[in-house]
Design a protein that fits this description.
The protein is an all-alpha fold and 287 residues long. The chain is built from seven helices and no strands. The longest helix is centred in the first third of the chain and has 55 residues, at 2-56.
């Protein structure tokens, strides 16, 4: 009899514990869902503020506006499902908010990269240079930003830097060649046809003499261009720090995004400069 009573008591205890566990799990699950809902509600307000900020900064916000509308519709749909005791998931709303935040970061990053590029362009290109190829790339960058296709900007920015450096190097090479040969041709053609052989010899000597110098000069100019670009970026970093710490013109999130991107650009330049120095040293060994 005692054994039977013990078994009954044990069974009741087990049922009580299981019921308590299920109740605790249900309470915990409900708490988690409530937290996610609160987060979704908060992120909708933050997304609206983000869109207002982008509008104030002069960005197009069609993509942000569409995504925000989808987030609001999703929130309303999940609220309706919750009221009807049906499965719901506010994480869908949070995902839309995260997408808006990503657009915001890409927009600021694209504009900052373009500003840095334009400053480098103005410091590198003169009125005597044919910069139409670089101008076309910059037009494409503006079009991508205008159409909110920020994911395409970074690649175009790198193409523009390469093209500007190429234009500058080509212009310098042509000037060097013209300066080195013009004087010789002028002296030769003032004489008669008998000096044609001398012209050929002189041209050959000029080619042998200046080809390494020109190559070294072009590498040096490219390295100087990278250093100027690095200097420009550092100036923008100081301006960003001044805007954030002294003037309070930009929020902390924007400051972090800008400084992080500037640091990446400086690291990339620091990786390229030693490679150019190594190429220069190879020309020096071939002298």
């Amino acid at each position: 009899m005692r054994v039977k009573n013990k078994l009954i008591f044990l069974g009741i205890a087990i049922l009580f514990i299981l019921n308590l566990s299920f109740s605790f799990a249900a309470t915990l699950d409900a708490t988690n869902l409530s937290i996610v809902k609160a987060r979704a509600s908060t992120c909708l307000n933050e997304s609206q503020e983000t869109m207002n900020f982008l509008i104030a900064e002069g960005f197009n916000v069609m993509k942000v506006n569409d995504t925000l509308k989808e987030a609001i519709s999703s929130f309303d749909a999940q609220t309706l499902l919750q009221s009807r005791k049906r499965p719901y998931d506010y994480n869908l709303v949070v995902e839309k908010c995260d997408a808006i935040l990503k657009i915001h970061e890409d927009a600021l990053d694209s504009r900052d990269q373009l500003e840095t590029l334009l400053k480098f362009y103005n410091e590198s290109i003169t009125s005597n240079m044919n910069a139409s190829s670089a101008d076309k790339i910059i037009e494409s960058i503006n079009a991508e930003i205008e159409d909110e296709r920020y994911e395409n900007v970074d690649n175009l920015i790198q193409q523009a830097y390469s093209k500007i450096t190429e234009i500058q190097s080509s212009y310098t090479a042509l000037n060097i060649f013209y300066s080195a040969t013009a004087r010789g041709f002028k002296a030769i053609f003032l004489r008669n046809w008998k000096v044609v052989l001398a012209v050929i010899i002189i041209l050959f000597i000029l080619f042998i003499t200046y080809r390494i110098k020109i190559a070294k000069y072009l590498l040096t100019k490219k390295m100087e261009g990278l250093k100027n670009r690095k200097k420009t970026i550092k100036e923008l970093v100081m301006k960003t720090q001044e805007d954030y710490f002294q003037l309070g013109k930009i929020p902390e999130g924007t400051y972090n995004i800008k400084t992080k991107k500037y640091a990446e650009l400086i690291r990339d330049i620091d990786r390229q400069i030693p490679l150019l120095q190594e190429e220069l040293s190879k020309f020096g060994s071939k002298k």
